[in-house]
Each structure stands twice: as structure tokens, then as C-alpha cells.
């Protein structure tokens, strides 16, 4: 098959769909790989590395979309890319359609085959292609939150770990993590490492017990139906929103009223912003202009957080996405998807029909059962 890798054009997005090593694997399986000129440069991969791996370099995105059977990306297609997608072309990338009505409409119109990394499952119901980027985003969330708490970022002017030696008034910051999944666990790894006081809220008692086994008394577990969330939010210096409903819009856990109760200069990092955000006052931002303020609370809502560390992120992403891509290219979409129900769960839009239930429901489309289509 012909596999095309365009340069990402979303603002401040410098990851790339394939590393040179991944290209080498695909070429060894007999496939042609086309990489856009300087597509991986910002992630530390130059054209020569791709050429040595067996890829051909395309002058522009138009050549990629014209000549490829499979388009491999990182972020959702932007408007100009959607216009270039051809009927029956396979698009393999993060889509996050439940928070993207116009994109959904455009992909339906294109009659292409769209497989979303974030809804591919495993036998335990986990999301293996989302997990590495969730882990990166979780770790970055505390790093970004600590920076936003600095006074020159309009934060409270406090250090996450507090004052050395336990000086009066210099206690560690209160970090509240909403969701104990991959984002939450990785956020806790960094926050506890920075000596903050860390609360983790989750709806699963079993999951909270697992986190206590991991972190011991470095965290305070909070069962969501037994707490006063408003009080915890009001006391927090940094709130990390890491809740997820696979493929669906994130629930709004933190209300406008809760934001008003927070301390001046406290910080919200809404990692769930890709799926609409779990904070009522959140709106997507970019690495170029990452924050805004509502009621004296700093909001960091970058929609592609792992794009800030593109080299780390590209390697981590390829490790999990490549095996599925090899299967897709070797067997074709019909066999690859029909043989693997977990891979089939990634199919969101198929030749003009919505094949992911949560997306169909949020926008009022008819749902088409993917197992009956491929």
C-alpha cells in the first residue's frame, strides 16, 4: 500500500505520524511511504533520515493526499486537509470527534474511512493508543501548572513543593487531580515528586486502592460520591482535569460557581480539553498562547499538550500505533478490522456513516454498526 505522512499544520503541533524507524518497518513489509518535506524536522527527524529508511519525500501535502491509500497523522485533519481527503482513503490519527462537529461533518462528506487512535481498545477495555499521550499530558499538566503558579504568569506566586525547611506560610501547594486514570496517575507521579499535597478524585474505589498501593501516603484518595467537590476545588492551588469517557464529550465536573470560589491566582489545567473539557469555563488554547483568566483563576487548556515535547511524544506514539498500521497495510482495512474487534472499535466514520455511538449521539446522526459494514 501507499502510506502518506503529511506535516502537521495545527498551530504549534510539531509531532509527526511516523518516525524513520517506523518507515523502515513498513518498507520492509513491501509498502511505499511518502513523507512531506521537512515534516519531522521539528521533532528531530530530517529528510535524509527518512530517505535512508526507504521513504520518498513529497513536496507538499497535496501530493501526499493525492498519492496515498492511508494517511497517517497525529492530530485531527484541519479544514484544508479535510478538503484533500479522497473517497475510500483511510485516515489513521487522533480524531476526538465528539468535540468537533464541523470536522465530523467534513469527514462524513468525504466518504473516507476514519480510524481514531483514541477509541481503539484492548481486551481489558483500556485505550492503548491513547495511553502514551495521556501519560505525557498527565506529566506535563503538573509541569505546566507549576509554571502557571509563578507570579509572572499571573499565578499565586507559590512553589509546588513549598518552602525548604517548612517555613511558616510556605506549605506545599494543594494539587487536586480529577480522575485516577492514565492522566491522573502520571500527574500524581510528578506532583508527588515535587512534594505537593496531592488529592486524587475518582469514582472507582478499586482504582483508588490501586493508586494508594502505588503512591502510599503521598496521595489522599477521594471517592467522588463521598466528597464535597466544591470544597476541594476551593482549597486547591492547582486543579488538573483528567477525566475521560472514551470517544465522548468530557463531563463538566467543575462549574462556574466553583471557579468563583477558588483563590486568586490558582490554576486549572484541563487535560480533557480535547474532548470538550471537564471545567465549565475551559476553552481550547495553543502552546503559543496557552492561558487565559476567568475570575482571577489561570486556565491552561492547550488542546495538544504532548505537541510541546514532539520528539518524546512521537517515539511514544509510534510504539503503540505502528503494529496496528502494519496490520492495516498488510491485510487491508476489511480483514484487519473484521479480525480484531478492538481495532474495529477505532472506526469512527466509514464511507459517510458514523460508526461510533457516542459521536452519533452527541450530534444526532444515525449510528451504523461497524461490524455490519466492513
Describe the structure.
The chain is of the alpha/beta class. It has two domains: 2-120 and 310-372, Rossmann fold (3-Layer(aba) Sandwich); 131-308, NAD(P)-binding Rossmann-like Domain (Rossmann fold), CATH 3.40.50. 35% of the residues lie in helices and 16% in strands. It is built from 13 helices and 15 strands. The chain has an eight-stranded mixed β-sheet, with helices on both faces. Strands 9-8-7-10-11-13-12 form a seven-stranded mixed β-sheet, with helices on both faces.
Catalogue the unreliable spans.
Answer: none
Just name the CATH architecture of the largest domain.
3-Layer(aba) Sandwich
Structural class call reads alpha/beta
Kindly identify the CATH topology of the largest domain: Rossmann fold
Overall pLDDT level: 96
- Please compute the radius of gyration using only Cα atoms: 21 Å
> Quaternary arrangement of the chains shown?
single chain
Helix content: 25-40%
Main β sheet profile: 8 strands, mixed
CATH class of the largest domain equals Alpha Beta
Instruction: Tell me the strand order in the biggest sheet.
Output: 3-2-1-4-5-6-14-15
